[in-house]
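Dear colleague,

Thank you for sharing your sequence with our group. We've completed the structure prediction you requested, and as agreed, I am returning the results in plain text so they can be pasted directly into your records. Please verify that the sequence below matches your submission; if there's any discrepancy, let me know and we will rerun it promptly.
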Amino acid sequence: MKIQVRAPQIQWTEALRQHAVRRLQFALSRFSPNISLVTIDIRGVARTRGALPTRGICRITVHLLPEGIVQGEDGQNDLNAAIGLLSERAGRAVQRWLDRERSFRPHWR
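Please find the predicted structure tokens below.
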């Protein structure tokens, strides 16, 4: 499972990156044989035109094998909270996707 972090508009600290990777690994590690790539996109949103970003929007995209995508997005003032919440949501969404995939698989294989 490869984790890719992108934050072009936000001052990204090493501690925040490590927190995001740790939370995602904890939430998705049991599904790692079924996951090819996890992408975290964080961007800032200014409440007024020309101001500094005051709110972060975090999007997590999980690319599943053989084909499938699970996405989640959340915007909060606290990026740590947004990353934690989205990591838990991504884990539940991947579990649901895998359950659906297994229920449609033929039983004779």
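Summary note from our side: The helical segments are 14-28, 79-104.

Kind regards,
the structure core
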